[in-house]
Specification:
- By secondary structure, the chain is an alpha/beta fold.
- The chain has one domain (about 5-189): 3-Layer(aba) Sandwich (Pyruvate-ferredoxin Oxidoreductase, domain 3), CATH 3.40.920.
- Helix content is about 40%, strand content about 25%.
- Helix 1 crosses helix 5 (about 145-155) and helix 4 crosses helix 6.
- Strand 4, helix 2 and strand 5 form a beta-alpha-beta unit.
Length: about 190
C-alpha cells in the first residue's frame, strides 16, 4: 500500500472536483491517516475552474501548499494544460477522456484515460462521473480502501441524498474496472 500521495484534482466548477477531494480526505481520516484538503476555485464557481490539493500520508504533513504532485486527476482541457507538467516523473495523470481535446504526450508518467462521463450516463446519473474517476484513481493508487470511501459518503451525503449511495458504489466499482481496462489496452499496444 502507498504510504503518501500528493494529489491535485481539477476541472470546471460543478463537476464534483471539490467533493471528490473531500471524499478521498474523509476516507483517509476514517483510516487514521494524516490528511490535508485545500480547495481553490474562481468567484463564479459553477462553470469556472476549480481544483483542490489532497495530501494523504501515514506521517505528519509539513505543508499543504505544493507545486509538484504525485498524481493529477483532471476533468477538462484547461486543467490538463495547467497541471500536466506539475506531475512528478513516475507519477500518475488520470483524465476524463471525453473532455480532453489534446491528450498528454509525456512519457515519464503513467497516463490513464477513463470515459467517466459516459459511464455515469450508463449508470443513469451524470453526477457520479467524479466517483467513477475516484474509483479509477484508487485502482492505480490504492491509498485508501474503497469501502471507506462508501463509509465516508454515508457520512457526508445529506439525508435527502442517501438514496444515491448504491449508484455511487456502482460508480466506484466501475471506475476501478475501467482503470484496469485502460491499463490492459496500453499494455497490449
Amino acid at each position: 500500500m502507498i504510504t503518501s500521495q500528493e494529489i491535485v484534482i481539477a476541472g470546471f466548477g460543478g463537476q464534483g472536483v471539490l467533493s471528490m477531494g473531500q471524499l478521498l480526505a474523509y476516507a483517509a481520516m476514517l483510516e487514521g491517516k494524516e490528511v490535508s484538503w485545500m480547495p481553490s476555485y474562481g468567484p463564479e464557481m459553477r462553470g469556472g475552474t476549480a481544483n483542490c490539493i489532497v495530501i494523504v500520508s501515514d506521517s505528519r504533513i509539513s505543508s499543504p501548499i505544493l507545486s509538484k504532485f504525485d498524481s493529477a486527476i483532471v476533468l477538462n482541457q484547461p486543467s490538463l494544460d495547467k497541471f500536466v507538467n506539475s506531475v512528478r516523473p513516475g507519477g500518475l495523470l488520470l483524465y476524463e477522456r471525453s473532455s480532453i481535446i489534446s491528450p498528454p504526450t509525456r512519457t515519464d508518467i503513467e497516463i490513464v484515460h477513463v470515459a467517466a462521463i459516459e459511464e455515469a450516463h450508463r449508470l443513469t446519473s451524470k453526477q457520479v462521473a467524479n466517483v467513477v474517476l475516484l474509483g479509477a484513481f484508487l485502482e492505480r493508487r490504492p491509498i485508501v480502501d474503497p469501502k471507506n470511501v462508501i463509509s465516508a459518503l454515508k457520512e457526508v451525503l445529506p439525508s435527502h441524498r442517501q438514496h444515491l449511495l448504491p449508484i455511487n458504489e456502482q460508480a466506484l466499482v466501475r471506475g476501478r474496472e475501467l482503470a484496469l481496462e485502460a491499463l490492459s489496452e496500453s499494455v497490449s499496444r
